[in-house]
Amino acid sequence: MENNNIGKINISDDVIATIASKATCEVEHVCSLSAGIGSNITDLLGVKNFNKPIKIESSEEGCIIDIYVDIEYGSKIDKVGYDIQSSVKTAVEEMTDIHVIQVNVYVKGVKEAPKANK
């Protein structure tokens, strides 16, 4: 939250998650965002926010972003992960002025790239 002489500016975690989502999907070899761990169990129990593909933990120091993705089969997983981290950190910090402490990428699966129509 930022204070100025006019009032406060508060940016919600959902806004940060939206920015992170768009930045992630723009990275080459990312197929899709993937539900977080234990989504089937938490759905049955009615627990919210455990199956979202992007989780934000905010504090006074900044935010930690967890991202769950499926990537293209055959791509270099560590490079794609690094590209996601870099893209998300840059996008969130540039758009919000919120310090990104960490971007943790969890590769939940690999998928075949969509085939081009002939």
UniProtKB/TrEMBL annotation:
Stored InterPro entries: Asp23
Record Pfam families: Asp23
Family as reported in the entry's similarity comment: Belongs to the asp23 family.
Annotated PANTHER family: ASP23_GLS24 FAMILY ENVELOPE STRESS RESPONSE PROTEIN (PTHR34297:SF2), HYPOTHETICAL CYTOSOLIC PROTEIN-RELATED (PTHR34297)
Record protein name field: Asp23/Gls24 family envelope stress response protein
Provenance organism: Fenollaria massiliensis
Organismal lineage: Bacteria, Bacillati, Bacillota, Clostridia, Eubacteriales
